[in-house]
Design brief:
The structure holds 2 protein chains of 2 kinds.
Chain A lengths: L1 H19 L17 H5 L6 H19 L4 H20 L13 H4 L1 H24 L5 H25 L4
Chain B lengths: L1 H9 L1 H18 L3 H29 L1 H27 L5 H4 L4 E10 L9 E3 L12 E3 L4 E8 L4 E5 L7 E5 L5 E5 L7 E8 L9 E4 L11 E11 L3 E8 L8 E7 L2 H10 L2
Classes of the chains: A mainly alpha, B alpha+beta.
Chain lengths: 167, 272
């Protein structure tokens, strides 16, 4: 029960933070930090997959309502929620993940979390930015935006692990 | 039947993923500019109040810059006033100066700004109560900003030049050829001017102005300067325009009310 309440609280806080603060961060028009997908990153390991998918869907839908881009964030977050279990398997150490731990720096170290966050962020940003442009005409300039924004998002997410979401 | 059920059970997560993605993609696919505007309107009603609060803080940090901008504008207006009054003295009063004025500017503050998306919108803190309605032009002291998309009692949304749905007729100052100004979604400092025929002589640095071919903007509002140009498929130029307005640092704008707009639209509809 406690964990569910905590996740719902995190959902609300992250969306408000994204819409009110992060969406106002503008660096040369190419970079935009999307840190709300931290919600997907921090879901407990044993969350049933259908719950992961549905929460990814809801997360994207709320973001879409706030930014007036119906469907774009949704498609990207559902994809991120879908690939997350596979990535976790890929990044697991030989012993796997221990019960009563969470996917955080605190339990699995900086390098593990950096890899995990970066992969999900890149997948999410690729989907989001190309769906937003919806054409292949500006392929490379979009790719540049994906790369720059991913760097910014990943570093913000990793930093947040030291200051806000420590445990 | 049983094999089908087993199949569904085995791939239930994949199926759920596909269903959710199909919903999302179909939402994107049917998301026309009309629907976007409806969504933005709904969004504004929910968040307008909230953004106003947050923006109070944001504005505090930009006071210095806003001050400098205002001083600059003040000086310029004073100079213009001086020029006009000197002309008035010399008794060459034009008919336009004598008649009722045609345009009126409503001063407004931006409470929400975005410049890093493909479909950017601004939210202003003036709405129907202050006489701000759909399809009015928006300018800043730097130049063209955009067009009012929707307005509620106290707020309005602007579709700025840097939105892929934006289109406006604009002309080249030196030779008066008009083309269509739109944005290609790349840089928030640049827009594209198209449909200028190949025989027109262009120079880098030429000024682009609004053409006044619509009832939205008066003629001659500054848009930007030509940065580069090349021929697109032989007949028309693709001109890259460096915009005067810096959307990333924009706090105060003016909404233009055109008092003769109704009259002009009525006439145009009648003769259609």
């Amino acid at each position: 029960m406690y964990i569910i309440a905590r996740n719902i609280f995190r959902f609300v806080v992250l969306i408000l933070f994204q819409v009110l603060v992060m969406d106002n961060v503008m660096i040369n028009g190419y970079m935009i930090p999307y840190i709300y997908i931290l919600f997907i990153l921090l879901m407990p390991f044993e969350t049933p997959r259908w719950i992961q998918l549905i929460s990814g869907f809801l997360l994207g839908l709320v973001m879409d309502l706030f930014s007036g881009t119906l469907g774009m964030h949704t498609a990207a977050t559902v994809l991120a929620a879908f690939v997350r279990p596979y990535l976790l398997d890929l990044l697991a150490s030989r012993d796997g993940y221990e019960p009563e731990t969470f996917p955080r720096i605190h339990y699995y170290g900086f390098l593990w979390f950096l890899k995990y966050a970066a992969l999900i962020v890149v997948i999410h940003h690729l989907a989001l930015f190309y769906l937003e442009v919806f054409q292949l005409k500006h392929f490379f300039s979009t790719l540049l935006r994906v790369i720059l924004s991913s760097i910014l998002s990943t570093s913000t997410i990793v930093l947040s692990q030291y200051f806000v979401f420590r445990k | 039947m049983r094999t089908l059920l087993r199949f569904i059970q085995k791939y239930s997560n994949l199926l759920l993923f596909l269903i959710l993605e199909i919903i999302a993609i179909s939402l994107i696919a049917q998301n026309s500019s009309y629907q976007r505007s409806r969504l933005i309107r709904l969004n504004r009603q929910i968040t307008g109040f909230m953004y106003n609060r947050v923006d109070g803080a944001r504005e505090y940090f930009s006071l210095r810059e806003a001050n400098e901008q205002l001083i600059k504008e003040n000086t310029e207006l004073r100079n213009r006033l001086d020029l006009v009054s000197s002309r008035l003295d010399s008794s060459t009063v034009t008919s336009e100066l004598k008649g009722e004025h045609r345009y009126y500017y409503v001063q407004s503050r931006i409470v929400r700004n975005s410049s890093n998306k493909q479909y950017n919108y601004l939210t202003l803190d003036k709405g129907k109560k202050d006489g701000v309605f759909r399809d009015m032009g928006v300018v800043s002291d730097q130049g063209l900003v955009g067009i009012i998309l929707e307005s509620s009692a106290n707020y309005s949304t602007v579709i700025p030049v840097i939105n892929r749905d934006f289109r406006l007729s604009a002309k080249i100052k030196s030779n008066n050829y008009a083309g269509i100004l739109q944005w290609n979604g790349l840089s928030p400092r640049h827009a594209m001017l198209s449909e200028i025929p190949f025989h027109v002589a262009l120079n880098e640095g030429d000024t682009i102005l609004t053409s006044g071919f619509s009832s939205i903007f008066p003629e001659g509002i500054e848009v930007g300067t030509i940065e580069s140009f090349h021929l697109e498929r032989g007949n028309f130029y693709d001109i890259r325009v460096e915009l005067f307005t810096n959307f990333q640092r924009l706090y105060h704008v003016n909404v233009i009310r055109n008092f003769r707009r109704e009259e002009q639209l009525d006439l145009e509809n009648q003769s259609r």
